[in-house]
Amino acid sequence: MSSMCLVSLVHRSLLQDSTMHSIPSSSRLRHRLSFEAIGTRWHIDTPTHIPAGAAADIYAAIQAFDQKWSRFRSDSQVSALRLTVGTLALDADEYAMWQLYRQVYDATDSAVSPLVAAALEASGYDAAYSLTRTAEATAAPDWDDALSLGHNSLTVHQPTLLDIGAAGKGLLVDRVASLLSNTIDTYTIDAGGDIYVAGHSERIALEHPDNASFAIGVAHVADSALCGSAPNRRTWADTHHIIDARSGVSTTHIAATWTLAATAMAADLATTTLFFLPPESTQQLIPCQPVVMNTNGQLRYTTNKDMEIYA
User: Fold this and answer.
1) Are 113 and 145 in contact (CB under 8 A)?
2) Confidence of residue 136 (pLDDT cuts 50, 70, 90)
3) Regarding the domain delimited by 1-311, which CATH topology (the fold level of the hierarchy) does it fall under?
4) What confidence tens digit (pLDDT) does each residue in 38-87 have?
5) pTM value?
6) Which GO MF terms does the UniProt record name (predicted)?
7) CA–CA separation, 263 vs 283, rounded Å?
């Protein structure tokens, strides 16, 4: 659910979950596979063509993930749960995602919750992207009332709509990376701004949320993932897509967040967590290298070797 600018040090912008543009890759990555999926533009840059079979596996994995988890599809498994109780089977990586979701839910006093979907829809962030509020803001259901997490399943105890947007796209990027690694060891994946770099390094600037020509720092990304989030990328009326699940109301004090982590799922979820926890607490919860910009322009971050911050 994150949305933020990352800027290539070459010349082009990359806007997560908004108007997406590809990042220029290493000169060794001469081939690009581009396609639309899960509501965003994907670019996969590689030194050689991706074999047809590997590409087909990637498309199939994305389609299966979307059909299971997308709240924007009426035929998805999670959409069916808005009408009835039921159980979803979980793969090992899905279980790991839900475990981390629960840890973040507890650490943020339920502010970050996969049960925030009703509040998002009421605000206008619905399947039709109406961007028109249809109901008053309300708190999300309590996790323990609505959900039970098992080692290979998620049980929904009351009809409800789930939204895994804070971590789901990152998890899917990790799955695509795993598939690619079966045939290619050097690549860059850009899934609408969730970036994973393998076998080489990229230097990616962190775009100021109020000035696309200015970078607040640079991330050195190698065999890791970089994600960012900013409310101004998806804003309508007095609302944006980063909502406090305790109230159903959009946050107001953070202008942008960025995280560098070992996996795209971790980086993705950490960018949202930073709207509710300080960098040090987020880093203890999710191993990452975090940067936060407050709405007053103040930067908060932890010292690390892979993030150069121009403070």
Assistant:
1) no
2) confident
3) T-fold (3.10.520)
4) 989 999 999 999 999 999 999 999 999 999 999 989 999 999 999 999 99
5) 0.89
6) metal ion binding; transferase activity
7) 14
Q: What is the DSSP string of 125-185?
A: -STT---S--S---PPPPHHHHEEE-SSEEEESS------TTTHHHHHHHHHHHHHTTT-S
Q: Residue 194: which pLDDT band, with cuts at 50, 70 and 90?
A: very high
Q: What is the pLDDT of residue 56?
A: 97
CA distance 181 to 223: 12
Q: How is residue 130 written in tokens?
A: 């109406």
Does the pLDDT value for residue 264 go beyond 80? yes
What is the 3 state secondary structure string of 274-305? Answer: CCCCCHHHHHHHCCCEEEEEECCCCEEECCCC
Q: Give the list of residues 6+ apart from residue 66 with CB closer than 8 angstroms, or none.
A: 37, 38, 73, 76
Asked whether 140 and 305 are in contact (CB, 8 A), the reply is: no
- The pairing of strands 243-244 and 249-250 is antiparallel
Task: Please give the Cα distance from 165 to 243 (Å, whole number).
Answer: 12
Structure tokens of 17?
């979950």
